[in-house]
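[recover] target loaded
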């Protein structure tokens, strides 16, 4: 009887190990699908525009179209917030000076859509965000995010980013 219980216990642990190993290996696959579905749904909303690169955006206000518009080498002073699709605030809420040639591709592209004193909300797919710097391919087990898990700056792999930006000034 003891050998049957021992064999059954070993068998059960083996099966559970295989099940959990499969879950771990694809731990980011569901998050990737959720983010892609969210972006697909967002692209159908009224007022949302999509660029050739996949960036989604809506201009909230562009009150001074005669004012300076940022270019690739501009430095801007802006107030921004960035969130994940689940509402988690990653960063922002303060005025910062940013060189557009050193930000993520989606941020740079979006800021070219408005002028000084303008407001824009944009939705950056993972390939235009931090993932393009850290991750290529579909190896869900080894995918890396940005930042350190548990800190305010943590961005999981495959994350779409939601930015709200007010450009205070453009410095050429």
């Amino acid at each position: 009887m003891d050998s049957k219980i021992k064999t059954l216990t070993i068998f059960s642990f083996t099966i559970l190990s295989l099940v959990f190993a499969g879950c771990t290996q694809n731990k980011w696959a569901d998050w990737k699908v959720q983010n892609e579905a969210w972006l697909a749904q967002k692209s159908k909303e009224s007022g949302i525009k999509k660029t050739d690169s996949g960036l989604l955006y809506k201009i909230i206000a562009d009150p001074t179209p005669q004012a300076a518009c940022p270019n690739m080498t501009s430095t801007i002073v802006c107030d921004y917030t960035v969130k994940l699709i689940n509402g988690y605030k990653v960063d922002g809420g303060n005025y910062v000076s940013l060189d557009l040639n050193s930000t993520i591709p989606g941020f740079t592209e979006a800021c070219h859509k408005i002028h000084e004193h303008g407001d824009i909300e944009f939705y950056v797919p993972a390939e235009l965000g931090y993932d393009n710097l850290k991750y290529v391919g579909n190896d869900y087990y080894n995918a890396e995010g940005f930042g350190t898990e548990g800190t305010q700056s943590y961005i999981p792999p495959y994350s779409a980013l939601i930015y709200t930006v007010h450009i205070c000034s453009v410095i050429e």
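[recover] notes: The CA atoms of residues 61 and 129 lie 24 Å apart.
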